[in-house]
Specification:
Radius of gyration: 19 Å
Strand order of the largest sheet: 3-4-5-10-11-12-13-14
Strand content: 15-25%
CATH topology: TIM Barrel
Structural class: alpha/beta
CATH class: Alpha Beta
Number of strands: 14
Bound molecules: flavin mononucleotide
CATH superfamily: Aldolase class I
Number of helices: 10
Number of domains: 1
């Protein structure tokens, strides 16, 4: 099998005519600075500062008013939002960066106090997620029970993802990443604990995977396979996603089907999978099945990232928290400069503190 692999964190990664300047991706991170769900100048500055990454993947960006679950998170369904995102993509491109946006529909991980008027909390089945969520108006609140999606609501959601992908290209993004990880809507369909449907979208592995694959196919048809990636997190129990016996079989099937759709990349959060033999076997099988770019994520350091590339386990590595506090992460990694610690207290606060004020190691950040 031929890999897209560069074997080196600092060499370009090329596929389908797109070139990422290095193998370092910035992982998608919700930062809750999008007041009114509209991207703004502060966000443009934040992403521009991080343009040295080979690929920036934005924070979760909702394809639908129904898909906004957290306070101050952005969407990409209105003209105002598209205009706001244009500022972000223009700033990143001016610095030579590449930027995809993560299309994230939260499904049941939601609270109505964070949602626009006239919206509904929707999920494959009416099963409430355990745990609380922050709302600006009412403080911490238990996540609310979702309504089970009707057949029409499923078709509408697919159309919303498709429209959002087209909007993303209009806004200047180089592509989109579908958020199939971390217990949000797409994964809620995959997992039999959150999907107890008895129609063609629930039951067998093929049926539970149908929504994810239909969304992917519709988005591919709308913007092109070379502009589409997807994020998955097998064995991850974040957002009250219980484990189930068919995890390996489900993700093996998904990798086969996504491979047929020939999308640009697969982005796997691997830390949960790495804790068992079964998970490690699954990661190898995904690697062997999916021939395009494989991005791995989850607690990587420079050393572990280089090892993973050298061992051909991945083509790119994404870093999350290190990018929060090191806007010039690629430069620091390349030159062995110590990383700054990030401050979790300001991960989701509304202003520039802990967002755009982390220091650069050098003025020459794109070197
Ligand atoms: C503040 C914060 C926000 C996050 N928001 C998202 C998100 O919107 N979408 C997503 O897929 N993952 C999100 N994640 C998970 C990260 O993308 C990444 O998987 C995680 O931080 C592990 O990578 P790391 O060890 O390099 O930080 C978030 C993580 C953090 C710390």
């Amino acid at each position: 099998m031929s890999y897209t692999n560069t074997l080196n964190l600092f060499s370009p990664v090329k596929k389908y005519g797109i070139e990422f300047s290095n193998a370092i991706a910035m992982a998608p991170m919700t930062r809750s600075r999008a007041l009114g769900s509209v991207p703004n100048d502060l966000m443009a500055t934040y992403y521009e500062q991080r343009a040295g990454a080979g690929l920036i993947i934005t924070e979760g960006n909702s394809p639908s008013p129904n898909g906004i679950g957290y306070a101050r998170t952005p969407g990409i369904y209105s003209a105002e939002q598209i205009a706001g995102w244009k500022k972000v993509t223009t700033a990143v491109h001016a610095k030579g960066g590449k930027i995809f946006t993560q299309l994230m529909h939260v499904g049941r991980v939601s609270h109505s106090a964070n949602m626009p008027a006239g919206t509904k909390i929707l999920a494959p089945s009416a099963i409430q997620a355990a745990g609380d969520m922050w709302t600006d108006v009412q403080g911490l609140q238990p996540k609310e029970k979702p309504e089970a999606m009707t057949h029409d609501e499923i078709k509408t959601a697919i159309a919303e993802f498709t429209r959002a992908a087209i909007n993303a290209i209009d806004a200047g993004f180089d592509g989109v990443e579908l958020h199939g990880a971390n217990g949000y809507l797409l994964e809620q369909f995959l997992n039999p604990n959150t999907n107890q449907r008895t129609d063609e979208y629930g039951g067998s592995i093929e049926k539970r995977s149908r929504f994810v694959l239909e969304v992917t196919e519709a988005v591919v048809n709308a913007i092109g396979k070379e502009k589409v990636g997807i994020r998955l997190s097998p064995y991850n129990v974040f957002n009250d996603m219980a484990l189930y016996s068919e995890i390996a079989a489900t993700y093996t099937y998904l990798a086969e089907q996504l491979s047929k759709l020939d999308i640009l990349y697969l982005h796997v959060i691997d830390y949960a999978a790495r804790t068992s033999e079964e998970g490690l076997t699954l990661l190898k099988s995904i690697r062997n099945t999916f021939g395009n770019i494989l991005i791995l994520n989850g607690g990587y350091t420079r050393e572990r990232a280089e090892q993973a590339l050298a061992n051909r386990e991945a083509d790119m590595i994404s870093f999350g928290t290190p990018f929060i506090s090191n806007p010039d992460l690629h430069y620091r990694l390349k030159h062995g400069i110590a990383l700054q610690e990030s401050n979790p207290d300001t991960f989701y606060t509304p202003d520039s503190k802990g967002y755009t004020d982390y220091a650069f190691a050098s003025q020459n950040v794109l070197a």
